[in-house]
Design goal:
CATH class of the largest domain: Alpha Beta
Distance between the termini: 48 Å
Number of domains: 2
Order of helices and strands: EHEEHEEHEEEHH
Number of strands: 8
CATH superfamily of the largest domain: L1 transposable element, RRM domain
Largest sheet: 5 strands, antiparallel
Strand order of the largest sheet: 2-3-1-5-4
Structural class: alpha+beta
Shape: elongated
Helix content: 25-40%
Number of helices: 5
């Protein structure tokens, strides 16, 4: 359902007026170097459904855009990422996939670890869906979960916060791996 969706972050509240779809089309054409004649057909566009921030210093709600064609969304996001820093009304804005809330939580934990790694001068990245990519002296290594990376990160003196849910999921995964690979058939 989210495949055709794109999120735009840090656009000031109220910039879109009453026509969010029209605003997004104009914004995309103004801030991105898109190919001329690109058919940007938007099914719908709106602010995220959280309540409007009452504090003026709070970050603005993201804008969620659903395109008719996933290929157009992919082209737009690739262009935004390749351009690097994009500004609107003297503010840097960001374009990203529309991830589920559960996946966003997992990715936030990975980004917290990446921040610590970068402070130590190490290269790391978040790989979809929420995997940790780490460049070590021995080469690049990808960890499916932060639990998988816990031993390596502990050696690097990086703090990893794993909740009980992650620990239980990891234990269940290990138990499944240790189960018998064959099925006992009943005698007739």
């Amino acid at each position: 359902m989210r495949r055709n969706n794109l999120r735009i972050y840090q656009v000031p509240e109220g910039s879109e007026g009453k026509d969010t779809e029209g605003f997004v089309k104009r914004l995309l054409n103004d801030v991105l170097d898109l190919p001329s004649g690109m058919d940007i057909t938007i099914e719908r566009a709106h602010r995220s459904l959280t309540s409007k921030p009452s504090d003026s210093t709070a970050p603005p709600r993201s804008i969620i855009v659903r395109f008719l064609d996933a290929g157009v969304k992919d082209a737009i996001i690739r262009q935004a990422w390749s351009q690097g820093q994009i500004h609107f009304q003297e503010r840097q804005i960001f374009f990203d996939q529309d991830y589920s809330p559960d996946l966003l939580k997992k990715r936030a934990k990975v980004y917290a670890v990446i921040k610590q790694l970068k402070q130590k001068g190490m290269q790391a990245k978040c790989i979809y869906p929420a995997q940790l990519g780490l460049k070590l002296n021995t080469g690049e290594k990808t960890f499916a979960t932060l639990m998988d990376a816990a031993t390596q990160l502990k050696q690097l003196e990086i703090e990893v916060r794993c909740g009980e849910k992650e620990i239980m999921e990891e234990e269940l995964k290990e138990d499944e791996m240790q189960c018998c690979p064959y099925v006992i058939q009943e005698e007739k």
